[in-house]
Amino acid sequence: MQIKDLEFEKLIDSAVIADKVRELAGRLNSDYAGKSPVLLPILNGSFMFASDLMKELTIPCRISFVKISSYSGTNSTGQLKTLIGHEESLFNQDILIVEDIIDTGLTIEKIMLELRELGAKSVETVSLLRKQPAREKKVDVKYIGFELENEFVLGYGMDYDGLGRNLKDLYRSIS
Questions:
Q1: Can you give the pTM of this predicted structure?
Q2: Which candidate in 94, 103, 159, 169 is catalytic?
Q3: Catalytic-residue membership of 103
Q4: Residue pLDDT, tens place only, 87-110
C-alpha cells in the first residue's frame, strides 16, 4: 500500500489487535479493582486504542484527553509542545496514560513527571506499541501490547502526515 512517498505492508491484523486490547483491559480490570482510574489518552494517535480499551473495562473510570506532539513526518523531533491539556484536577487520582506508541520515551517521561508533580496518587502507562529505543532507554511502561523494532507504523489511529489513521490494521513502512 502506498501513502504519499512511502510503501507499507500489513504488520498486525485488526483481529490480533482486538485480542490484545481485551488482554490489556483484563489486566487493568484486575489491577484496578476497587479503584476508579482516570484514563488520560494522548491524542491524536491513541484515540482508537483508548476507545476500544475503555469499552472493555468493567471498572469505574473516567477519561480526559491531552494532546502532545513530537513528530514531523516519520521522525520524532525531540521537542514537545503541549497543545491541549486535561481539564480536571488529577490530584490524588490513579492515572492511566493511554498511548498508541512509545517511541523514544521522551513524551511519556515528560507526562509522567508532570502528573507526579500535580500530586497524582499513581501514574501508569498502557501502550499498544513500544519501540526498541524506548526499551533500550528502559522507559517505565507497565502495560504493553506489542514490542516493535525501530520501524515506522501507521493505521489504527496512527498516521503519516495525517494520513492512514482510519486503517483498522497496523502497517509498517518498507520504503
A1: 0.89
A2: 103
A3: yes
A4: 678 899 999 999 999 988 887 888
